[in-house]
Amino acid sequence: MALKLESEDSVLIATINRPARKNAVDQETLAELANALKQAEAQSTRVIVLTGAENTFCSGADLSGVREVEFTDALHKVLIQLATSPCVTIAAIDGYALGAGAQLAISCDLRVATARAVVGVPAARLGLVVNHWTVERLTRECSWPVARAMLLAARNYSGDELAHLGAVHRIGDFDVALGWAREIAALAPLSIAGHKAALNASSREPEIDEIVRWTRDHAWASKDVEEGRAAFLEKRAAKFKGE
Length: 243
What we know:
The protein is α/β, with parallel strands linked by helices and about 240 residues long. It has one domain (about 5-175): Alpha-Beta Complex (2-enoyl-CoA Hydratase, Chain A, domain 1), CATH 3.90.226.10. The protein is built from eleven helices and nine strands. Strand 2, helix 1 (about 25-40) and strand 3 (about 45-50) form a beta-alpha-beta unit. Helix 1 runs parallel beside helix 2 (about 70-85) and helix 5 packs across helix 6 (about 145-155). It is globular and about 55 Å long.
């Protein structure tokens, strides 16, 4: 199983379990996570803790054997599920949370990270463009300056740095995240659901729009994507031509 699920009273622990791929998510993982989120709502789960096996949250997207457009659509739907679930969602981050991993982390309501955790969106190193929803969510959860540095300069941030900026709510390991989840699960669920709905209503949650379609038609089909992927595999600096 790409996703390990454990239930404890009203808390669901969802662990991305692909250590051989540094917990990079593929289409199967996303499908399992989408189903787990749906089941959690049906089973009156109050808190979901999303984490990764063996000291890595999620190193990004595993696109081997899949079409990029299908993957990005599946990822977008899971991000929306995390953000709008009536459950409180907590990302317990250790090690890398890059690309799709960072997207999953910022889609959660709350974030607990170790000081050594590394969060970033290296799309500009690969010739990719993240969708509009991710850009807006990143600016809301991490601030405009952090979003600009991540997206325009491909800058990574440590868990400690993000905690000082308010984008990570607590510094600690998985046990700290689980302890907080238990505390939240004991709070009034209807109050929390109402507050979460109000928080979501106060922000724009756009679905796939013109920018996302532009991403599909241009960025994902570009020669720069091929160059970015080749450079990554060959462990060299990419030479992008804007084509």
